[in-house]
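Batch job 17 of 40 flagged for manual review because the log was empty.
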Amino acid sequence: MLAFAHRGGAYHPGLEGLENTMAAFRHAAGLGYGYLETDVHVTSDGVLLAFHDRVLDRVTDRRGEIGSLTHAEVEEALVGGRERVPTLASLVEAFPTARFNIDLKSERAVAALAAFVEEYAVHDRVLVGSFSPRRLNAFRRLTAGRVATSAHPGEIAAFRLLPSGRLADRVTRGRVAALQVPHRRHGFTITTPGLVRRAHAAGKHVHVWTIDDPAEMRLLLDRGVDGLMTDRTDLLRAVLTERGQWIQHDGGTSR
């Protein structure tokens, strides 16, 4: 069972307002999380940043669109009034044994991330996803299938609606390593027992986001999902520990 620290554990007590910061990721690593979830945007001068929003406005003390700012300009912003926006390179270097789940948040980030994976030789340390089929398929082409990717919404629909996982795997051309899905969406249950069965029949993982309620965690674990993403890293660790499913990682922090 994979436990993902979503944006480093964005709503852990004491970390609220510090999502996607080095402080959040270090805290998650200290708890024993070896799977860190983040998002990437790219600055105007080509630097990949671990940051969710298109603009700085919501979580920092500065304003502006990431893609129109240089890295030096972004460095002037403080998340939660105290933390700088980390580069993806700084995270990979700070947590050399951690694995990263990366959400492509902009068109320009596609080529930048593909080049980054090659430069840092982290092909086997990342799982890349996007809500945008265009972004995800472009990344797949650039990396020639050497990097694991999660399903985009159309591919999820294939596994949700087709009668068998093997048929869905053929329809999606074997490009999907994992289905990363919400439990429910717009009143519909997405992570059904049938979806889990079909995914497993095709050898795919099912990871569910973003689960912060212990009762919901237990329900999904009983359903057989392979991973949970959470903002409440403390609660997920407690639930997995009580079930004997917690795997303590060294956190991957460089010494």
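Reviewer: the log was empty due to a logging misconfiguration, but the result itself is present. The two ends are 27 Å apart (CA to CA). Unflagging and moving on to job 18.
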